UniProtKB/TrEMBL annotation:
PROSITE patterns: UBIQUITIN_2. Residues 2-73 form the Ubiquitin-like domain. The lineage of its organism: Eukaryota, Metazoa, Ecdysozoa, Arthropoda, Hexapoda. SUPFAM superfamilies: Ubiquitin-like. This is Ubiquitin-like protein 5. Keywords: Ubl conjugation pathway. It comes from the Eukaryota. The keyword Flavoprotein does not apply. It comes from Nicrophorus vespilloides (Boreal carrion beetle). Pfam families: ubiquitin. The keyword Protein biosynthesis does not apply.
Length: 73
């Protein structure tokens, strides 16, 4: 079980628990449930890497306690 911190740099900081074999789209849906936004309007980035919805978290080497930047379209 992973705990990932997502920060939008505007005052919202969300902690989400998920599994390593979940996809980025599943992570977006968990974030959307906590923030109240639509999941398809969320963009997840780490530096300049934009995460794609169909790829698993373990393939991006996202580990427990990792911080991800949260953007809105």
């Amino acid at each position: 079980m992973l705990e990932i911190t997502c920060n939008d740099r505007l005052g919202k900081k969300v902690r989400v628990k998920c599994n390593p074999d979940d996809t980025v789209g599943d992570l977006k849906k968990l974030i959307a449930a906590q923030t109240g936004t639509k999941w398809d309007k969320i963009v997840l980035k780490k530096w300049y890497t934009t995460f794609k919805d169909h790829i698993q978290l373990q393939d991006y080497e996202i580990h427990d306690g990792m911080n991800i930047e949260l953007y809105y379209q």
